[in-house]
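Feature request disguised as a bug report, sorry. It would help if multi-protein outputs had a clear separator. Right now it looks like this:
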Amino acid sequence: MKMTQGGFNILRASLSRTLTQEQVDGINHYVSEIDKDGGISYAQASYVLATVWHETATKMKPIEEYGKGQGRPYGTWHKNSKGDLYSFKNGNKKEAYLYKDYPHLYYGRGDTQNTWFDNYSKLSKVFGVDFLRKPELLLTREWSTKATLYSMKNGLYTGKKLSDYINTTKTDFVNARRIINGVDRASQIAKYAEIFLKALKSY
Protein backbone atom coordinates (compact mmCIF):
# COMPACT_ATOMS: atom_id res chain seq x y z
CA MET A 1 0.00 0.00 0.00
CA LYS A 2 1.33 3.41 -0.94
CA MET A 3 0.10 6.81 -2.03
CA THR A 4 1.02 7.31 -5.68
CA GLN A 5 1.39 10.58 -7.54
CA GLY A 6 -2.03 9.90 -9.00
CA GLY A 7 -3.37 9.52 -5.48
CA PHE A 8 -1.89 12.82 -4.41
CA ASN A 9 -3.44 14.45 -7.46
CA ILE A 10 -6.83 13.21 -6.30
CA LEU A 11 -6.19 14.61 -2.81
CA ARG A 12 -5.19 17.96 -4.26
CA ALA A 13 -8.28 18.10 -6.44
CA SER A 14 -10.68 17.07 -3.68
CA LEU A 15 -9.20 18.19 -0.35
CA SER A 16 -6.85 21.06 -1.04
CA ARG A 17 -5.59 22.77 -4.16
CA THR A 18 -2.10 22.52 -2.74
CA LEU A 19 -0.53 20.17 -0.25
CA THR A 20 2.44 21.32 1.78
CA GLN A 21 5.51 19.14 2.03
CA GLU A 22 4.61 18.59 5.67
CA GLN A 23 1.19 17.24 4.70
CA VAL A 24 2.70 15.02 2.00
CA ASP A 25 5.27 13.68 4.46
CA GLY A 26 2.58 13.02 7.04
CA ILE A 27 0.39 11.13 4.59
CA ASN A 28 3.31 9.07 3.30
CA HIS A 29 4.36 8.28 6.86
CA TYR A 30 0.93 6.98 7.80
CA VAL A 31 0.49 4.94 4.66
CA SER A 32 3.93 3.39 5.22
CA GLU A 33 3.15 2.50 8.84
CA ILE A 34 -0.23 1.08 7.86
CA ASP A 35 1.44 -1.01 5.16
CA LYS A 36 3.96 -2.35 7.71
CA ASP A 37 1.09 -3.28 10.02
CA GLY A 38 -0.29 -5.66 7.43
CA GLY A 39 -3.66 -6.04 9.12
CA ILE A 40 -5.41 -2.88 7.99
CA SER A 41 -7.52 -2.90 4.81
CA TYR A 42 -7.64 -0.12 2.25
CA ALA A 43 -11.01 1.05 3.54
CA GLN A 44 -9.79 1.01 7.15
CA ALA A 45 -6.61 2.85 6.14
CA SER A 46 -8.72 5.47 4.41
CA TYR A 47 -10.70 6.07 7.57
CA VAL A 48 -7.53 6.35 9.65
CA LEU A 49 -6.16 8.95 7.24
CA ALA A 50 -9.45 10.84 7.21
CA THR A 51 -9.50 10.89 11.00
CA VAL A 52 -5.95 12.18 11.26
CA TRP A 53 -6.66 14.79 8.56
CA HIS A 54 -9.58 16.07 10.64
CA GLU A 55 -8.09 15.77 14.13
CA THR A 56 -4.85 17.54 13.19
CA ALA A 57 -6.70 20.36 11.41
CA THR A 58 -5.28 19.01 8.10
CA LYS A 59 -1.67 19.41 9.28
CA MET A 60 -1.05 15.65 9.22
CA LYS A 61 1.28 15.89 12.20
CA PRO A 62 0.69 15.50 15.96
CA ILE A 63 -0.71 18.65 17.56
CA GLU A 64 -1.95 19.88 20.93
CA GLU A 65 -5.64 20.56 21.37
CA TYR A 66 -6.38 24.21 20.68
CA GLY A 67 -6.91 25.93 24.03
CA LYS A 68 -5.34 22.94 25.82
CA GLY A 69 -8.71 21.73 27.04
CA GLN A 70 -9.64 25.00 28.71
CA GLY A 71 -13.16 24.80 30.08
CA ARG A 72 -13.36 21.03 29.62
CA PRO A 73 -13.26 18.53 32.51
CA TYR A 74 -9.95 17.03 31.41
CA GLY A 75 -8.40 20.45 31.01
CA THR A 76 -9.33 21.94 34.38
CA TRP A 77 -7.80 21.85 37.85
CA HIS A 78 -10.08 21.88 40.89
CA LYS A 79 -9.25 22.30 44.58
CA ASN A 80 -10.42 19.92 47.33
CA SER A 81 -11.11 20.65 50.99
CA LYS A 82 -7.42 20.15 51.82
CA GLY A 83 -6.35 22.69 49.27
CA ASP A 84 -4.93 20.07 46.91
CA LEU A 85 -5.37 20.53 43.18
CA TYR A 86 -7.00 17.64 41.36
CA SER A 87 -8.56 16.74 38.02
CA PHE A 88 -10.73 13.86 36.86
CA LYS A 89 -9.44 10.62 35.40
CA ASN A 90 -12.30 10.09 32.98
CA GLY A 91 -15.65 11.40 31.87
CA ASN A 92 -17.53 9.70 34.70
CA LYS A 93 -15.97 12.21 37.11
CA LYS A 94 -15.96 9.60 39.88
CA GLU A 95 -12.19 9.21 40.11
CA ALA A 96 -9.56 11.91 40.34
CA TYR A 97 -5.80 12.33 40.48
CA LEU A 98 -3.78 14.91 42.39
CA TYR A 99 -1.52 17.54 40.87
CA LYS A 100 1.20 16.63 43.37
CA ASP A 101 1.24 13.08 41.94
CA TYR A 102 0.76 13.91 38.24
CA PRO A 103 1.30 17.61 37.48
CA HIS A 104 -0.26 17.43 34.02
CA LEU A 105 -3.64 18.00 32.44
CA TYR A 106 -4.48 15.32 29.93
CA TYR A 107 -6.01 17.41 27.18
CA GLY A 108 -5.86 16.37 23.54
CA ARG A 109 -2.42 15.51 22.18
CA GLY A 110 -1.38 13.72 19.04
CA ASP A 111 -2.96 12.70 15.76
CA THR A 112 -6.25 11.66 17.38
CA GLN A 113 -6.27 14.09 20.28
CA ASN A 114 -5.74 11.64 23.14
CA THR A 115 -7.58 12.91 26.22
CA TRP A 116 -8.17 11.90 29.86
CA PHE A 117 -5.81 10.43 32.44
CA ASP A 118 -7.24 6.93 31.95
CA ASN A 119 -6.45 6.85 28.23
CA TYR A 120 -2.88 8.03 28.82
CA SER A 121 -2.62 5.32 31.48
CA LYS A 122 -3.91 2.61 29.11
CA LEU A 123 -1.45 3.63 26.42
CA SER A 124 1.35 3.59 28.98
CA LYS A 125 0.54 -0.02 29.84
CA VAL A 126 0.24 -1.07 26.19
CA PHE A 127 3.60 0.36 25.12
CA GLY A 128 5.56 0.31 28.37
CA VAL A 129 6.11 4.06 28.08
CA ASP A 130 5.08 6.49 30.83
CA PHE A 131 2.79 8.87 28.96
CA LEU A 132 1.33 9.99 32.29
CA ARG A 133 4.70 11.45 33.32
CA LYS A 134 5.65 12.51 29.81
CA PRO A 135 2.45 13.31 27.92
CA GLU A 136 4.47 15.33 25.41
CA LEU A 137 5.66 12.05 23.91
CA LEU A 138 2.30 11.82 22.19
CA LEU A 139 3.32 14.89 20.23
CA THR A 140 6.12 12.94 18.56
CA ARG A 141 5.36 11.29 15.24
CA GLU A 142 6.56 7.87 16.43
CA TRP A 143 4.36 7.57 19.50
CA SER A 144 1.39 9.42 18.12
CA THR A 145 1.24 7.05 15.15
CA LYS A 146 1.58 3.97 17.36
CA ALA A 147 -1.14 5.26 19.71
CA THR A 148 -3.48 6.11 16.85
CA LEU A 149 -3.21 2.79 15.04
CA TYR A 150 -3.41 0.71 18.21
CA SER A 151 -6.35 2.67 19.63
CA MET A 152 -8.40 2.68 16.44
CA LYS A 153 -7.79 -1.03 15.82
CA ASN A 154 -8.49 -2.11 19.40
CA GLY A 155 -11.18 0.29 20.57
CA LEU A 156 -9.15 1.99 23.29
CA TYR A 157 -10.99 5.33 23.13
CA THR A 158 -14.67 4.37 23.20
CA GLY A 159 -14.73 0.58 23.08
CA LYS A 160 -15.56 0.75 19.35
CA LYS A 161 -12.93 -0.30 16.81
CA LEU A 162 -12.28 -0.12 13.07
CA SER A 163 -13.50 -3.64 12.35
CA ASP A 164 -16.87 -2.89 13.98
CA TYR A 165 -17.74 -0.57 11.11
CA ILE A 166 -15.32 -1.37 8.30
CA ASN A 167 -14.85 -5.03 7.46
CA THR A 168 -15.37 -7.56 4.66
CA THR A 169 -19.16 -7.17 4.73
CA LYS A 170 -19.63 -3.43 5.26
CA THR A 171 -17.97 -0.05 5.00
CA ASP A 172 -19.75 2.37 7.31
CA PHE A 173 -17.58 5.47 7.25
CA VAL A 174 -20.24 7.58 9.00
CA ASN A 175 -20.71 5.48 12.12
CA ALA A 176 -16.99 4.70 12.27
CA ARG A 177 -16.69 8.11 13.92
CA ARG A 178 -17.90 6.36 17.09
CA ILE A 179 -14.37 4.94 17.38
CA ILE A 180 -13.17 8.42 18.32
CA ASN A 181 -15.95 10.78 19.35
CA GLY A 182 -19.60 9.82 18.98
CA VAL A 183 -20.93 11.21 15.72
CA ASP A 184 -19.21 14.60 15.88
CA ARG A 185 -18.48 15.72 12.28
CA ALA A 186 -19.19 12.13 11.21
CA SER A 187 -20.51 12.95 7.74
CA GLN A 188 -17.65 15.29 6.90
CA ILE A 189 -15.00 12.78 7.98
CA ALA A 190 -16.80 10.07 6.00
CA LYS A 191 -16.42 12.24 2.89
CA TYR A 192 -12.71 12.58 3.58
CA ALA A 193 -12.48 8.79 3.91
CA GLU A 194 -14.11 8.29 0.50
CA ILE A 195 -11.55 10.64 -1.03
CA PHE A 196 -8.62 8.92 0.68
CA LEU A 197 -9.92 5.53 -0.44
CA LYS A 198 -10.08 6.66 -4.05
CA ALA A 199 -6.59 8.11 -3.72
CA LEU A 200 -5.11 4.96 -2.16
CA LYS A 201 -6.46 2.85 -5.01
CA SER A 202 -5.15 5.17 -7.71
CA TYR A 203 -2.19 4.18 -9.85
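(second protein starts here, but nothing in the output says so)
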Amino acid sequence: MKIAKSSLILGLALVLIAGMAFGYFIKPSAPSEDHLAMIKNKSIAEQREAWIGIADSIRGELAMEGKYDCCLDKPCWYCIQKTPGHGEGAECTCRQDILNGEHPCGECIGEILEGHGLAELKPFYAKAIAHKVGLQHEEHLQDMINDMYPEIQ
Protein backbone atom coordinates (compact mmCIF):
# COMPACT_ATOMS: atom_id res chain seq x y z
CA MET A 1 0.00 0.00 0.00
CA LYS A 2 2.83 2.40 0.89
CA ILE A 3 4.68 1.57 -2.34
CA ALA A 4 1.51 1.98 -4.41
CA LYS A 5 0.79 5.33 -2.78
CA SER A 6 4.38 6.50 -3.36
CA SER A 7 4.19 5.35 -6.97
CA LEU A 8 0.90 7.21 -7.42
CA ILE A 9 2.35 10.40 -5.95
CA LEU A 10 5.48 10.10 -8.11
CA GLY A 11 3.38 9.39 -11.20
CA LEU A 12 1.14 12.39 -10.56
CA ALA A 13 4.18 14.60 -9.99
CA LEU A 14 5.68 13.48 -13.31
CA VAL A 15 2.37 14.08 -15.11
CA LEU A 16 2.18 17.54 -13.54
CA ILE A 17 5.73 18.42 -14.57
CA ALA A 18 5.23 17.13 -18.11
CA GLY A 19 1.86 18.84 -18.30
CA MET A 20 3.32 22.14 -17.17
CA ALA A 21 6.18 21.90 -19.66
CA PHE A 22 3.84 20.99 -22.50
CA GLY A 23 1.36 23.70 -21.53
CA TYR A 24 4.11 26.31 -21.25
CA PHE A 25 5.40 25.80 -24.77
CA ILE A 26 2.12 25.08 -26.54
CA LYS A 27 -0.94 27.22 -25.92
CA PRO A 28 -4.23 25.94 -27.33
CA SER A 29 -5.84 27.90 -30.14
CA ALA A 30 -8.33 27.26 -32.90
CA PRO A 31 -6.80 24.78 -35.34
CA SER A 32 -5.70 26.26 -38.66
CA GLU A 33 -6.32 24.58 -42.02
CA ASP A 34 -2.63 23.58 -42.09
CA HIS A 35 -2.88 22.06 -38.62
CA LEU A 36 -5.99 20.08 -39.57
CA ALA A 37 -4.30 18.81 -42.73
CA MET A 38 -1.26 17.77 -40.68
CA ILE A 39 -3.45 15.84 -38.23
CA LYS A 40 -5.29 14.07 -41.04
CA ASN A 41 -1.95 12.82 -42.39
CA LYS A 42 -1.10 11.12 -39.10
CA SER A 43 -2.02 7.59 -38.20
CA ILE A 44 -4.74 6.94 -35.65
CA ALA A 45 -2.05 5.87 -33.16
CA GLU A 46 -0.17 9.16 -33.67
CA GLN A 47 -3.39 11.17 -33.32
CA ARG A 48 -4.23 9.27 -30.13
CA GLU A 49 -0.80 9.99 -28.65
CA ALA A 50 -1.14 13.69 -29.47
CA TRP A 51 -4.61 13.78 -27.90
CA ILE A 52 -3.36 12.07 -24.73
CA GLY A 53 -0.48 14.55 -24.51
CA ILE A 54 -2.86 17.48 -24.78
CA ALA A 55 -5.23 16.02 -22.18
CA ASP A 56 -2.33 15.31 -19.81
CA SER A 57 -1.19 18.90 -20.25
CA ILE A 58 -4.66 20.22 -19.43
CA ARG A 59 -4.95 17.97 -16.37
CA GLY A 60 -1.48 18.97 -15.19
CA GLU A 61 -2.22 22.68 -15.55
CA LEU A 62 -5.55 22.31 -13.75
CA ALA A 63 -3.94 20.29 -10.95
CA MET A 64 -1.32 23.01 -10.44
CA GLU A 65 -4.19 25.49 -10.07
CA GLY A 66 -5.94 23.19 -7.55
CA LYS A 67 -8.74 22.46 -10.03
CA TYR A 68 -8.15 18.79 -10.81
CA ASP A 69 -8.64 16.12 -8.16
CA CYS A 70 -9.79 12.83 -9.66
CA CYS A 71 -10.77 9.65 -7.82
CA LEU A 72 -9.22 7.17 -10.28
CA ASP A 73 -5.85 5.43 -10.53
CA LYS A 74 -5.57 6.90 -14.04
CA PRO A 75 -7.37 10.27 -13.95
CA CYS A 76 -10.46 10.71 -16.08
CA TRP A 77 -10.93 12.73 -19.29
CA TYR A 78 -14.64 13.38 -18.88
CA CYS A 79 -14.33 16.42 -16.63
CA ILE A 80 -12.08 18.15 -19.15
CA GLN A 81 -14.43 17.41 -22.03
CA LYS A 82 -17.79 18.10 -20.42
CA THR A 83 -17.19 21.12 -18.22
CA PRO A 84 -19.04 24.13 -19.63
CA GLY A 85 -16.92 25.70 -22.35
CA HIS A 86 -15.35 22.34 -23.28
CA GLY A 87 -12.10 22.90 -21.44
CA GLU A 88 -12.49 26.59 -20.69
CA GLY A 89 -12.89 26.76 -16.95
CA ALA A 90 -12.70 22.96 -16.75
CA GLU A 91 -12.11 21.32 -13.41
CA CYS A 92 -12.47 17.93 -11.78
CA THR A 93 -13.76 17.62 -8.24
CA CYS A 94 -14.63 13.93 -8.34
CA ARG A 95 -12.47 12.95 -5.33
CA GLN A 96 -13.96 15.68 -3.14
CA ASP A 97 -17.46 14.91 -4.42
CA ILE A 98 -17.06 11.28 -3.34
CA LEU A 99 -15.78 12.29 0.09
CA ASN A 100 -18.87 14.53 0.40
CA GLY A 101 -21.20 11.65 -0.52
CA GLU A 102 -21.97 13.11 -3.95
CA HIS A 103 -21.59 11.28 -7.25
CA PRO A 104 -18.48 11.77 -9.38
CA CYS A 105 -18.61 12.17 -13.17
CA GLY A 106 -20.01 9.39 -15.35
CA GLU A 107 -16.59 8.15 -16.46
CA CYS A 108 -15.45 7.84 -12.85
CA ILE A 109 -18.58 5.88 -11.90
CA GLY A 110 -17.88 3.35 -14.65
CA GLU A 111 -14.17 3.11 -13.86
CA ILE A 112 -14.86 2.70 -10.12
CA LEU A 113 -17.23 -0.17 -10.86
CA GLU A 114 -14.53 -1.76 -13.04
CA GLY A 115 -12.05 -1.62 -10.13
CA HIS A 116 -9.98 1.36 -11.34
CA GLY A 117 -10.74 3.76 -8.50
CA LEU A 118 -8.37 4.80 -5.73
CA ALA A 119 -8.52 1.97 -3.22
CA GLU A 120 -8.39 4.34 -0.23
CA LEU A 121 -11.75 5.78 -1.32
CA LYS A 122 -13.46 2.37 -1.19
CA PRO A 123 -15.47 3.21 1.96
CA PHE A 124 -17.07 6.18 0.17
CA TYR A 125 -17.82 4.81 -3.30
CA ALA A 126 -21.18 3.08 -2.73
CA LYS A 127 -22.83 6.05 -1.04
CA ALA A 128 -21.50 8.50 -3.64
CA ILE A 129 -22.65 6.42 -6.62
CA ALA A 130 -26.02 5.75 -4.96
CA HIS A 131 -26.43 9.53 -4.82
CA LYS A 132 -26.70 9.37 -8.65
CA VAL A 133 -28.48 6.07 -9.29
CA GLY A 134 -30.73 5.91 -6.23
CA LEU A 135 -30.13 5.35 -2.54
CA GLN A 136 -32.05 2.06 -2.71
CA HIS A 137 -29.03 0.64 -4.61
CA GLU A 138 -26.38 1.52 -2.01
CA GLU A 139 -26.22 -1.95 -0.43
CA HIS A 140 -25.92 -3.68 -3.81
CA LEU A 141 -23.29 -1.14 -4.91
CA GLN A 142 -21.32 -1.83 -1.72
CA ASP A 143 -21.37 -5.57 -2.52
CA MET A 144 -20.06 -4.84 -6.03
CA ILE A 145 -17.35 -2.53 -4.72
CA ASN A 146 -16.29 -5.10 -2.12
CA ASP A 147 -15.85 -7.59 -4.97
CA MET A 148 -13.86 -5.08 -7.07
CA TYR A 149 -11.60 -3.95 -4.17
CA PRO A 150 -11.21 -7.05 -1.96
CA GLU A 151 -7.74 -6.09 -0.64
CA ILE A 152 -9.15 -3.14 1.36
CA GLN A 153 -11.47 -4.05 4.20
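Even a blank line would do. Unrelated, but nice: The CA atoms of residues 22 and 143 lie 42 Å apart.
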